[in-house]
Amino acid sequence: MAKRTGSFIGQDGINAPDPATGVTGTAGNAQVDVSFTSPSDVGGAAITGYRVQSNDGIGASGSASPITVSGLTNGTSYTFNVWAINPFGWSSPSDASGSVTPSILQRAVFVGGNTNAMEYVDITTTGNGTDFGDLIASDRFLAGFGSTTRGIIAGGQNTNRIQYITFATTGNAIDFGDMSYTIANTNDSGCSSPTRGITGGGYNGGYLNNMDYVTIATTGNGTDFGNLTSARYGVSALASPTRGVWCGGESSSGFQNIMDYVTIASTGNASDFGDLLQVRRSSAALSSSTRGVIGGSYTSPGSSPKYQNLDYITIASTGNAADFGDATVGFADGCGTSGATRGLFSLGDGVTIDQITIASTGNATDFGDTISDASQGGATSSYHGGLQ
Length: 388
Hints:
By secondary structure, this protein is mainly beta.
């Protein structure tokens, strides 16, 4: 066997292994999965492990490829070397990997409607949806929220089911538990912080003011959070990491322009936030960490034409909404979700997805289309306003 003549700290240059080859990295949220090929020449004894290290000194050890290096900074570029280790010492360092930049996955998932299908898009690009998997059953009027890793879909027509998905993978939804109340005929809505999700409103033989909460990382049934300021359905919801806001809806007195807010980490009844520019029912909402945007509605008392204009609010304050711009068409029974800077509205016409830049104002533009009819469906994402 041809052996190296160089040396490394703690290395027996004759009996230490050759370095690993083919080092590559796959970016994740504040981490990179480093893959490599083990050396064919293991030296004088079997390899006992590997050490991976980034160019700024952050590293991790493991017994086989891939090895995850965590504690990295999103948006920073890294390269990685790998050392093979046996009882005689360490190999020379491998050739460095190419540059890899960790970042939070920005994936939106649109769910249900007139189908049990789920599909996803990369929020940072534009384009049509890709199949993700299936809901437990076909359903509509679904509330969506989640963490950076897990999406939650709650409620629906005539059900109190809660189900979940893992954003980074694809596959069918899994049972999470049940809400404490059942929604019939039309929708509730949901929003979340990084750890807790809340649903609110709906209809079940009468208008509902119920709110439930769940801990996203676990499974189990919903727990009573408190009540909205008025019982209504067709509400939309958005959030910052600390505050959830419910917008519009229809109550026993007709379409509403009211907005309620709660502090997500606590429990208790909602408080008045302010008013939308007009009454809205079956609207959609999305947010960054600071700003919420609300769009779409049936024209009271529930017919066409549908509202095209978009409203916005500053979540940390209270007060009335202001004009943001217009969607590409009037819509209702759509849904909204967001990434770091971009908001997406599924327009409720079956397939169209609009995009906006949340921090600015202006009219929406076309993003792409969903594969199947997504009207009266729901949406969730891995980087919405409640997480940033």
